[in-house]
């Protein structure tokens, strides 16, 4: 397993070693000791899975008081994944990290607390998995607009399918600053 730091403090790309043969494939999707060696001593509290059809866009979501670190991957299909740094004081505040995750190379990313996260589905359907460092608190969920003007995310879908809630999140510049996390550098 190869764990690579990105230019975004705390955000890592995980590349598993995949063993393919005529029966299919096998790989370790998570192994604590590999993460500890990379400087990520994480305690996961909740696993989530979603199934979505082509064109669905989920996000950009975050929790403030119970920030969630997320190890995300695509178990089936292909998604365009987005992490927007919303940590006040971060050197990458307002910048976007994007990656395509799929069931071919099985890459994953670890997104630390303090990022707004979302993805859109590029295949007919996708099964997306989240391993979270904190449980979900619906009363603590906030969001940033999927089409934030300054972030200028180049979503690879023309007419995304969004929930009503996701359609009404503010741009980062318009979000109440008290509802943004601080960078813990």
Task: List the main descriptive attributes of the protein structure presented here.
Jelly Rolls, 185 residues, 5-stranded antiparallel beta sheet, mainly beta, 39% strand, 6-stranded antiparallel beta sheet, 2 helices, 13 strands
Reconstruct the topology from this structure:
Blueprint: E1 2-5, E2 12-15, E3 19-21, E4 24-26, H1 32-37, E5 46-53, E6 57-63, E7 70-76, E8 78-85, E9 96-102, E10 108-111, E11 115-121, E12 125-132, E13 141-143, H2 164-167
Antiparallel strand pairs: 1-2, 2-10, 3-4, 5-12, 6-11, 6-13, 7-10, 7-12, 8-9, 8-11
Low-confidence stretches: none
Query: What is the arithmetic mean of pLDDT?
Result: 97
CA radius of gyration is 16 Å
Give the fraction of residues assigned to helices. Answer: under 10%
State the fourth-level CATH superfamily.
Jelly Rolls
Order of helices and strands: EEEEHEEEEEEEEEH
Structural class by SSE content: mainly beta
How would you describe the shape? globular
Explain this structure.
The chain has 185 residues and is mostly beta strands. It has a single domain (45-179), classed as Jelly Rolls, CATH 2.60.120.10. 5% of the residues lie in helices and 39% in strands. The protein has 2 helices and 13 strands, in the order ββββαβββββββββα. The protein has helices spanning 32-37, 164-167; strands at 2-5, 12-15, 19-21, 24-26, 46-53, 57-63, 70-76, 78-85, 96-102, 108-111, 115-121, 125-132, 141-143. The protein has a 6-stranded antiparallel β-sheet, with no helix packed on it. Strands 9-8-11-6-13 form a 5-stranded antiparallel β-sheet, with no helix packed on it. A two-stranded antiparallel sheet has the order 3-4.
């Amino acid at each position: 397993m190869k764990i690579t730091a990105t230019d975004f403090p705390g955000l890592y790309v995980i590349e598993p070693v995949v063993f393919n043969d005529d029966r299919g494939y096998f790989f370790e999707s998570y192994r604590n000791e590999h993460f500890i060696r990379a400087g990520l001593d994480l305690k996961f509290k909740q696993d989530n899975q979603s199934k979505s059809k082509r064109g669905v866009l989920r996000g950009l979501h975050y929790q403030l008081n119970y920030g969630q670190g997320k190890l995300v991957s695509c178990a089936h299909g292909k998604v365009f994944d987005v992490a927007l740094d919303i940590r006040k004081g971060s050197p990458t505040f307002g910048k976007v990290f994007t990656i395509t995750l799929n069931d071919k190379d099985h890459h994953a990313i670890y997104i630390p607390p303090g990022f707004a996260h979302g993805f859109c589905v590029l295949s007919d359907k996708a099964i997306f998995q989240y391993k979270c460092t904190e449980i979900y608190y619906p009363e603590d969920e906030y969001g940033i607009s999927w089409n934030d003007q300054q972030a200028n995310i180049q979503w690879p879908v023309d007419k995304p399918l969004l929930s009503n809630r996701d359609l009404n999140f503010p741009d980062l510049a318009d979000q109440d600053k008290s509802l943004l996390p601080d960078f813990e550098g």
